[in-house]
Amino acid sequence: MLSGVIASRTRPLLALSVVPVLCVLLGVVGWRLDWHLGVDETVYRSGAIALLRGEPLYARLFLDSQPSWAQLPFTYPPTAALLFLPLVLVPTQVAWGLLAAASIVATSVVVLVTSRALPDRPQWMTGPKVVVLLAIVALGLEPVWRTLALGQINLLLMAMIVLDVLLIGVAKTPMRRFGGVLIGIAAAVKLTPLIFVAHLLVTGRRADALRAIGTFAVLQGGLFLLIPGDVRAFWGDAVRDPHRIGPIHQVGNQSINGLVLRLTGNADWSLAAALAVGAVLAVPCVLLVRRLHQRRRPVPALLVTAFLGLLVSPVSWSHHWVWVVPLVVFLLARVSVAVPKLGWASRFRFGGAASVVLIFSSCVLIFLHYLKAETDWGALDFVVGSAYLLVPLVAGATVLLRRVRRAG
Question: Any idea what DSSP says for residue 244?
Answer without folding.
Answer: H
